[in-house]
Amino acid sequence: MKEIKIIALHLAYGGVEKAICNMANMFIEQYPVEIICVYKMPLSPAYQLDKRVKIRYLSNVIPNKNDFFEAVHSKNLIRLIKEGMKSLRILHIKKKAIINLARELHDCIIITTRNEDTVVFNKYGHSDTYRIAQLHHDHCYDKKLVHDFRHHYNNFDLFVLLCEQLCEETKSIMKGYNQHTKCVVVPNFIENLPVEDYNKEELVVAVGRLHKVKGFMRMLQMFRQIHAIMPNWKLHIIGDGDEYEVLKAEIHEHDMGGYVQLLGRMDEREISEEMKKASLYLMTSFSEGFPFVLLEAMSHHLPIVAFDVRVGPRSIIDESCGVLVPDGNETLFQSACVSLMQDEKRREIMGEKAYEKASYYTRNNVSSMWFSLLEKGN
């Protein structure tokens, strides 16, 4: 039985990291599994891992991305040079570590979770390994990704995409360039469906990395308008990131502190408790892949209101369990929220449908897809 090696950037909080931990917990039932991380972040692994899963860290350095951006904003030349040099040194360590790892691994199943690592393993990996690539976000027809799919994936046996749309688009991109790599669909999954009593409140919840791509600023701006119509409703945003201070300032400037809270980073149990109380989930991202958090929200009987971005939410949500709003139509988004807030019965019905839909994306249902793929690598 070949050992599975999952290549990860780190195991701190994040959707990709949670997916990696879920996969490892599933694979360990039939295969030996090792997660190999480039970085060892504080408080990681952030998600529960089976004790049988091995973890290896390739370096002790930690990315200085936040420090670098702070140096840019500070306009302190000495600090900027210092952080810039440190960033280059960390990137060099990372690249060298991944190349050495690709040269080291033999006779195993390799699963890469980032494009840059896939490119390295495609070039330096060995032919006695069974190589599986994953993409956890929308390719958006990015020129570099398109080029890599065509020219730097040809030694990979499988390319696992999260939904049919991404899979069909990737097949089309590769056509005529890469005849070896097979594109397949395997969605993210949740470990178990919660079975518990709910005491729903007039509360809206959103979870995610506080980054511009997640659209939390437009969420705040819209919720200010929504609150004027539905003054008893509150919004809780869970997550941390480089936009924390900007969002905090927006809340303060518009005196929203009485009904909007930035709760910061939370663990799985704490997020679950917030979702149990909530009555509505919002997603305002500008770009998504296959939003893990939507499955979690739906498993807690939460109807969803989300912008219908290019890919992602539409793979999970339909009119029975949520509302997909044309991306950028903030007036319609606000109206959809208010309509659901005003109709408790409709929310209950949609919440039940959301729970039913989430039940498809459980480990039991998805495991058969994965294990049939892994059998081909032995």
Written as H for each helix and E for each strand, in order along the chain, the element string is EHEEHHEHEHEHEEHEHEHEHEEHHH
Instruction: Report how far apart the termini are.
Output: 7 Å
Cα-atom radius of gyration: 22 Å
The unreliable regions are none
How many strands? 13
List the helices and strands and how they pair.
Elements: E1 4-8, H1 15-27, E2 33-37, E3 54-57, H2 65-74, H3 77-104, E4 109-112, H4 115-124, E5 130-134, H5 143-151, E6 158-161, H6 164-174, E7 182-185, E8 203-207, H7 216-229, E9 234-238, H8 244-253, E10 260-264, H9 268-277, E11 280-283, H10 292-299, E12 304-308, E13 322-326, H11 330-341, H12 344-358, H13 363-375
Helix pairs in contact: 2-3, 3-4, 7-11, 10-12
Could you characterize what this model shows?
With 378 residues, the chain is an alpha/beta fold. It has two domains: 4-189 and 362-375, Rossmann fold, CATH 3.40.50.2000; 203-361, Rossmann fold, CATH 3.40.50.2000. The chain is built from 13 helices and 13 strands. Strand 4 (109-112), helix 4 (115-124) and strand 5 form a beta-alpha-beta unit. Helix 3 crosses helix 4 and helix 7 (216-229) crosses helix 11. The longest helix has 28 residues, at 77-104. The radius of gyration is 22 Å and the shape is globular. The N and C termini lie close together (7 Å). The model has no long low-confidence stretch (mean pLDDT 93).
